[in-house]
Input
Amino acid sequence: MKKVQNIVLFLSIIIGIGLAYISFFNVYQTDDYFWSHTTRKIGLQQSFIETYTTWGGRYFGYSINMFNPVFYDKSNILPKVYPVFLMLSFIGVSSLNFKEYFSYSLKKSLKKGFFLFFFYTVLLVSLPEHYFWITGSNVYFVPVILAGILLYFLKKNKDTGQGIWFFLSILLIIILMGSNEILALIVEGLLLVSYYQNRNKKSLILLMIGSSFLLISFLAPGNFNRMGKTEMGIIKWLKRITLYGANTIYVAVKVLLVIPLFITIFEVELKGISRKITFKKALLFWSVSLLPLVFTSYILNSVARQFESIIFYFLTTFSLLLFFKFEKIKKWWWASLFIIFLPELKIFPEKYAYFNIDFNGENIIMELVKTDLKEYEKEMNGRVETIRNSSKDSVVVDRIKEVPRVLYFAEMASVNEKETFINDQLQKYFNKKYIRTKNK
Output
């Protein structure tokens, strides 16, 4: 087991270094411009009101995006350092929890934190949108880190009984309920399980506060404004059932392919947990992962970047179930390690491309080996300067030739295509009537 751990630790550090290097060429994109423009135009308060009433109920996730500093950050510093900061924060918070829950030394805790970072990275549905897109990371990655901090606060509250830890737990729950819907559902499910197992005053208060702010997020007028029209009756429900099955199969397959390696790496921790809880309790905790899957199928949402939290939670809880019943699956760790670095399995059409299984290992390697990241950054910065310095209301720019695999990138519509949200965002930000790229 030690040999396997050393291999994965080496890979974790190498992946971390590689992603940090790639981050040096990151730039602002799409919604980053939208949030900066909106905040400068109508102010924080009005921006919050309009977002909640017309766009969605992520009152925390959208609020921190309102501070996007595109307008002031002329040197593009934040996109280069922020992803690295968040990755290190994830490792740091994970290490803190390993130290708190398993009484590990700082060195061993950091080692475990790097392991968790490795699995989190390879399981991402969209690594570019999760790590390198500032707007996306604030809604999908930051809440995961905050959830780790909540886990730490809850443990301190349980061990010490001090009111400060209970108050901080309440604060984190309120924040997480307004971060993104998927993680909010997972937290709500865990609060329900916690109250079911420990029916005391504190558990009830946490559940009531979580439920209240979950409703504030879900019942936002903006959520209903964005709901599109679909078929009614039996057709709609058939679509929901099919989508639930497809989403669940995707999550299960992706997790099962890496679980042998995960169990091998975290065998000691899984063994310790299995001695403290029963299989039925472990099954109850795992079942929470089905809640967001039901929700996403109900709103007819297929696998996309918001599934990251589901997959990661599914992995950590389902691995415990398998450890109870099929511990020997760990002997296939070498197959998991091999699979992680295979290219994306492209078997679905573009419309359903997210269902293609991809563990990001090959993408990271090819980004470092093949993509001219410096040229990509140069092209993007040149585009922004061209638009900013143009005195005309209509601007046509070159298409980006060096397209990255890992860095987040979404191209604008060309002069012979219909305007997309990307064109619209840049037009508003730069106060232009028309911005397009040249024909393909």
